[in-house]
Design goal:
Layout: H1 45-62, E1 68-70, H2 71-77, E2 89-91, H3 97-106, H4 110-123, E3 132-136, E4 139-146, H5 149-162, E5 168-174
Parallel strand pairs: 4-5
Antiparallel strand pairs: 1-2, 3-4
Organism: Streptomyces gibsoniae
Protein name: BON domain-containing protein
InterPro entries: BON_dom, NT_sf
Length: about 190
């Protein structure tokens, strides 16, 4: 019996790097130092996704978590297109979700911290204001429009709490919401 892809040669373009496990775990590395998960990600979008995927996969494996890689990175790992989407998808068993989340949080992983920030934003009154939070390499980009300078400051306060030590670029603007100065006449 053959499984899908067993009888074909992967059509990976020349010059495309392979997906390999990240650096050796700290306990096996000279000096026992752990490599920070988000240090030194490549500027190239696809390479940054691959490197982050390798690091997270190595962390999950080192901590004994079972997982499966899915999405465009999994397709790439099996010889498919090198056109990666915006993220890497890891599947974990529902009963392991909290332990995996604790591992990712303990490693200081920015995307996990951003997810927690998004939960806080959605739970509070600024949640309906349309603030977008994106991880871009090792930095976080905030965009959107809010109703007041106070709302913007509340949001930025949450960001400072949740993402301490992470470079954050804010493009949150305040919309002018004043009453019209005169009656509008329609002709």
């Amino acid at each position: 019996m053959t499984q899908n892809g067993d009888d074909v040669t992967p059509a990976r373009p020349s010059g495309t790097s392979e997906l390999r496990l990240a650096a050796t775990p700290a306990e096996q590395r000279p000096g026992g130092t752990a490599e920070p998960l988000e240090q030194g990600l490549p500027a190239d979008h696809s390479q940054a996704i691959l490197e982050a995927t390798k690091r997270v996969g190595a962390l999950l494996k080192r901590e004994g978590h079972m997982f499966a890689l899915a999405g465009s990175v999994a397709v790439y790992a099996h010889g498919g297109s090198g056109h990666l989407q915006h993220d890497a998808d890891f599947c974990v068993r529902p009963e392991d979700a909290e332990a995996v989340a604790a591992t990712l949080h303990g490693a200081g992983l920015t995307v996990y911290r951003v997810a927690h920030l998004l939960e806080r934003l959605a739970a509070g009154h600024p949640g309906e204001l349309g603030v977008r939070v994106e991880v871009r390499g090792e930095a976080v980009q905030l965009t959107g429009t809010v109703a007041s300078a106070q709302s913007r400051e509340e949001i930025l306060g949450m960001v400072r709490e949740e993402l301490a030590g992470v470079p954050v670029h804010s493009d949150i603007v305040v919309a002018e919401t004043s009453a019209p100065g005169q009656a509008e006449e329609l002709a």
